[in-house]
TrEMBL record:
<dbReference type="InterPro" id="IPR027470">
    <property type="entry name" value="Cation_efflux_CTD"/>
</dbReference>
<protein>
    <submittedName>
        <fullName>Cation diffusion facilitator family transporter</fullName>
    </submittedName>
</protein>
<feature type="transmembrane region" description="Helical">
    <location>
        <begin position="71"/>
        <end position="93"/>
    </location>
</feature>
<keyword id="KW-1133">Transmembrane helix</keyword>
<dbReference type="InterPro" id="IPR027469">
    <property type="entry name" value="Cation_efflux_TMD_sf"/>
</dbReference>
<dbReference type="InterPro" id="IPR058533">
    <property type="entry name" value="Cation_efflux_TM"/>
</dbReference>
<keyword id="KW-0813">Transport</keyword>
<dbReference type="GO" id="GO:0005385">
    <property type="term" value="F:zinc ion transmembrane transporter activity"/>
</dbReference>
<dbReference type="GO" id="GO:0006882">
    <property type="term" value="P:intracellular zinc ion homeostasis"/>
</dbReference>
<dbReference type="InterPro" id="IPR036837">
    <property type="entry name" value="Cation_efflux_CTD_sf"/>
</dbReference>
<feature type="transmembrane region" description="Helical">
    <location>
        <begin position="164"/>
        <end position="186"/>
    </location>
</feature>
<feature type="domain" description="Cation efflux protein transmembrane">
    <location>
        <begin position="10"/>
        <end position="186"/>
    </location>
</feature>
<keyword id="KW-0472">Membrane</keyword>
<comment type="similarity">
    <text>Belongs to the cation diffusion facilitator (CDF) transporter (TC 2.A.4) family. SLC30A subfamily.</text>
</comment>
<feature type="transmembrane region" description="Helical">
    <location>
        <begin position="138"/>
        <end position="158"/>
    </location>
</feature>
<keyword id="KW-0812">Transmembrane</keyword>
<dbReference type="Pfam" id="PF01545">
    <property type="entry name" value="Cation_efflux"/>
</dbReference>
Amino acid sequence: MKRYFLPFWLIFGLNSLLSIYSGSATMISETVHSLLDALVITFSMYAMKLVNVKDSRFTYGLHRLEIVSSLANVATVVVGSIIVSLISLLYLIEGMRDQPVILTFASVIAFSLSLLPLSKRDETTRSGVWLHAVQDSLAYLIGILTGVIIIATGWYFIDPVSSLVIVSIMVLTSIKSMKGSLYVIMEGSPLDIEEMESELRKEIPGIHHIHVWDICNHLRVATLHVEEQSNVTLKELDEKRVKIEKLLGERFNINHVTIQFESEAERS
Ligand SMILES: [Zn+2]
Ligand SMILES: [Zn+2]
Ligand SMILES: [Zn+2]
């Protein structure tokens, strides 16, 4: 697990040293950004250890931490890149020049370190850390290119331009993840309920009033009603329940089902 967040603390350490050494405002804003990164990614990786902790209040466990963590990662990436680009805009307006050699040096090391967490995708994908690491690597790569161009040509105006490019990329690549997280929080159904109901009714005609929602990316919950004759036995209902649970698991990936049986007269 340390493999995921340690590189981000190393990047922060390096940026701090270079900030003190250079006094560069861009470097200082990079340091703030990398501190946010390190904090959020450390939080995310510890949160992933807690998702299965259940108690009498958190009866589903803490799987929503995956969603919270994804949103926190998206927010950090976007806010971090906005801070950095504001600083570089300020530099352009004030006609100040930064120290491209130090910035390029920092970007090269940060880029190599930010590639480390990308090797394994399981936990890091669920918590949004993987996307975050990809976005950071990309930003550092653009940073290297910018630095090299400035050193070679002296075109300092490239810096704020590339910062704005980075912000746009961060926002665009975050939209999908953010939408997905908000959809889960708003209890949007991952399936089209009408389609699902008509498909299920082919096999179990009495099915109605279906709710489906996701707790996280791999925990899907459903509740539904089934209309029954009033003279069926509990044993028959049990058999039907097992059949429905199997159907929902195999076809719709639903792993937690609650079924309400009701007679025609009492249908709700
Ligand atoms: Zn989960
Ligand atoms: Zn309802
Ligand atoms: Zn009903």
